[in-house]
Amino acid sequence: xxxxxxxxxxxxxxxxxxxxxxxxxxxxxxxxxxxxxxxxxxxxxxxxxxxxxxxxxxxxxxxxxxxxxxxxxxxxxxxxxxxxxxxxxxxxxxxxxxxxxxxxxxxxxxxxxxxxxxxxxxxxxxxxxxxxxxxxxxxxxxxxxxxxxxxxxxxxxxxxxxxxxxxxxxxxxxxxxxxxxxxxxxxxxxxxxxxxxxxxxxxxxxxxxxxxxxxxxxxxxxxxxxxxxxxxxxxxxxxxxxxxxxxxxxxxxxxxxxxxxxxxxxxxxxxxxxxxxxxxxxxxxxxxxxxxxxxxxxxxxxxxxxxxxxxxxxxxxxxxxxxxxxxxxxxxxxxxxxxxxxxxxxxx
Length: 348
What we know:
The chain is mainly alpha-helical. The chain has 16 helices and six strands.
């Protein structure tokens, strides 16, 4: 064991008592008590803390104490002096977890091992749901993310022919630095979307507007299917309806109007009055595709709209509430024997 490691080991073993002795006998009893309760102020989820570039140990210690992450700035400074780390703090953002004492926090700052926030976005999440998820995980404020995702300059930069990034925020698991801002997060999610779509050869031949239409339809399929095997069948139903200028009549678009456009809770049941809501996204009231995507689709739905099943189906209805399986039919007579409206629930 070299000298530095020995010093650190001693400092960890003796803790604040040794540090306090160096600073003066008057602080010994206080130092022992404070060091033993160094993490009392940290909540169950932990907190993020940023060490600024060129920031001194004295200033860092004072900031840690003021935020309730340590109980004594004096103890923290003394431990950094004893261990020889008082000039080795690395700038960055760190996650201070419950149970971390002053020495452990100091070691994190010296290691430079910055915090990364794991964010898993489920398939079919809307822009609003992603914003709420990011805020719940303390990554960014939801309002800031929504602002970035609807920023006209950013959308133009990313080649998105729409008023928001809805549909282009690929559902996946991401690791973002804790001090990230919203725009890089939007860029990262859109970049992942581009990478995934590039795996579909037919996508390369489409114009941005043509691709956008595919994304809109994929976003509807995403919110309708539960069994992946049914996604291409659902895509065929919608394509067949578009071809004969029949309304898509997707319940998923009605739910989108209720939850995302009107800001109401997710409905348990869709009523006849809901099907008559006056909104351009309501595909019971308006023929053709809605103005934009209603969710952020995954590969199952994206592939389904590029490779739909070859059918004459115009209808599908739920036949198993547990599995989410549907019966597909080509005639209204076959379809009419059930009026069940299936609502796929995602993140609610």
